[in-house]
Amino acid sequence: MSHYLLVFLLLGTLLHAKTVGGIAVLVQNEPITLFEIQEMMQRDRLSLKQSVQKLIRQKLEAIEIKERRISVNTDEVLREIQTMAQQNGMNVTQFYMVMQNARGVSERELKEKVKESLLNKKLYSAIAYAKISQPSRHEIEEYYKLHQEQFARPESFQVILYRSQSPQQLQQQVTNPMFYSPQIHTEEMTLNYSKIDPALANLLHHTKVNSFTQIVPDPKGGYMAFFVKEKSQVQLHDVDAYANEVSAAILEDKRKQVLNDYFARLRLNADIQTLRLPE
Question: Do the domain assignments include residue 7?
Fold first, then answer.
């Protein structure tokens, strides 16, 4: 055996050992690395056990997508991004800019995330669609009684509106409330839930008190963000006012249960080996 071949083989062995040393879990021979686990623990603030469980589920989903030959093309990704932009009152260019400046997500990263989301939707539909029945009137009434707080809506919002031509400056404001710039204009106002744009109402409703919303395009030009100071007394109505929302929530819960059961069974039969875990 030549000297060069021996060096090459030794180098390959060392590299292989280094790679294996970084693998924490094997799922059907697909690796989950120590780095992936530690990254998820920090990013999602999960425990070691929760992170490992979540990554195993993701790996099983990826394997299932591959085996079912589920795919997503570029046009589907672009259409989904266009829909997301429209739902937020933006064109696609504005949406890319806001995601980059406010979330630190590049156009390429956004497309990758959207593609992953669409792949999972197709997988979930293939697994769960035929097994889920529409909720009955009785189910809707019972669900609403048990989850009324989920459908309660504030009557109004006390907010401070921040406007600027610069999304970067607005992001500094959102990150540091003590930040000041003469290019950022502020205005205190009260917004009635039933009288404002539904997308804005939903954005404010899901923003915690004493917190900023995400940065969104300003209809008057530039960008804006809202600081939610207070939410008024919540309103509750008869179940008929929420029938569609309640029905959608029930279907979502059923879908999740079907999927959880499916992947629990899949995991029982999967070859999963734990090699080492972070200390």
Answer: yes
Residues 63 and 79 in one domain: no
Of 255, 277, 279, 273, nearest to 124 (Cα)?
A: 255
Q: Same domain, yes or no, for 24 and 91?
A: no
pLDDT of the residue at 130: 64
Within this chain, do residues 162 and 201 fall inside the same structural domain, yes or no?
yes
Task: Give dist(CA 181, CA 47) in Å, integer.
Answer: 40
Phi/psi for 28 (5° steps) reads 50, 40
pLDDT (0 to 100) of residue 222: 85
Whether 55 is covered by a domain: the verdict is yes
- Asked if 81 and 51 sit in the same domain, the reply is no
Report mean pLDDT in 10-residue bins for the chain, 279 residues: 42 41 87 92 92 94 94 95 83 84 84 93 84 88 90 90 90 86 92 86 89 86 91 83 89 90 92 86
Task: Answer whether residue 186 is part of any domain.
Answer: yes
Q: Which domain holds residue 120?
A: 74-131
**Secondary structure (H, E, C), 158-188:** EEEEEEECCHHHHHHHHHCCCCCCCCCEEEE
Among 175, 226, 222, CA closest to 200: 226
Token pair for 237: 């109505």
Is 231 within the bounds of a domain? Answer: yes
Contact call for residues 247 and 140 (beta carbons, < 8 A): yes
> At a CB cut-off of 8 Å and minimum separation 6, what does 30 contact?
59, 62, 63
| Structural domain count, the chain | 3
Specify the pLDDT at position 86: 83
Q: Which residues contact 108 (CB under 8 A, 6 or more apart)?
A: none
Return the pLDDT at 5: 41
- Beta strand pairing status for 211-212 and 30-33? unpaired
119 and 81 co-located in one domain? yes
Check residue 20 and give its pLDDT. 42
